[in-house]
Amino acid sequence: PTVNSPHKPEAARPSTTHSSSSPSFNEHALPTAKQLAEAASCFVIAENGLRVSFGELFRDQRTIVLFIRHFLCPLCQDYMFSLTDNVDQRMLKDAEVNLVVIGNGSYNMIKSYRQIFRTPFTFYTDPTLRLHKALGMNLRIMEPKSHRKRGGYVRHGPMGGIAMVFKNALRVGMPVWEKAGDFTQLGGEFVLGPGMNATYAHRMPNPRSHAPIMRVLAAAGI
To answer: What is the pLDDT of residue 174?
Structure first.
């Protein structure tokens, strides 16, 4: 991917409001051509602090894009363990599919976050949340509490999840003084490319509702 100059974290602050141009929330709608073009023009930040055009990530290859929440979210850490348990690079290579993970905290947390799961997949982050908004991922929890789904990947309850996060952070030396991300931001899963094509979209309606990774793989033809 094409890279630009190193990112200065203090220059970009996440916004917690929706602009009038933000797409309305729809859990499964594919991005429109306009939304996908807007998303492709956004930048994400790599582990080394360099900015990368999001569109470059899926320009030449079908790509699974997983948007997690903040880097200290125990539910997303459970999801990442589900990813590493079920997906390996060989199956992706055989299918000619790429996979990337995008958070929204400081890029300085990416290296240690990857070490938690010993994952080879590439991680990026977008602290501005512009990419999330372009793809229709809403900041608010959309479903009434009584209707919230719990993904099968969730292994821990609230207390157990918090304990796991702190244990993992200590084990890998995570720089917890860095910004982990916007705690209200929800993530999602997309299959994009090659080119300006989208074949799968899922946006989380609540913090425990990532799409099952096997469903995402199937959507990508794996």
So the answer is: 80
Instruction: Take residue 173 and report the two structure tokens written for it.
Output: 């030396």
Residues 6+ away with beta carbon under 8 Å from 88: none
Q: Name the token pair of 147.
A: 């209707």
Question: With contact defined as beta carbons under 8 Å apart, do 43 and 50 qualify?
Answer: no
Signed CA dihedral, 181, 185, 187, 192: sign only: negative
Contact present, 164 and 74 (Cβ < 8 Å): yes
Q: What is the greatest pairwise CA distance in the chain?
A: 46
- The token pair that represents 7 in the structure block: 């990112």
Q: Residue 60 has what DSSP assignment? A: S
Name the helix (H) or strand (E) containing 105: none
164-173: per-residue pLDDT in tens? 777 877 887 8
Q: What CA–CA distance (Å, rounded) separates 123 from 25?
A: 25
Predicted TM-score (pTM) above 0.85: no
Which residue type sits at 45?
I
User: How many angstroms separate the Cα of 13 from the Cα of each of 52, 155, 171, 176, 181?
Assistant: 18, 32, 29, 18, 10
**Could you identify the residue written with the tokens 């220059």?**
11
Q: Are 77 and 101 in contact (CB under 8 A)?
A: no
CA distance 79 to 209: 10
Report which secondary-structure segment, H or E, holds 186. Answer: none
How far apart are the two ends of the chain, measured CA to CA in Å?
Answer: 24
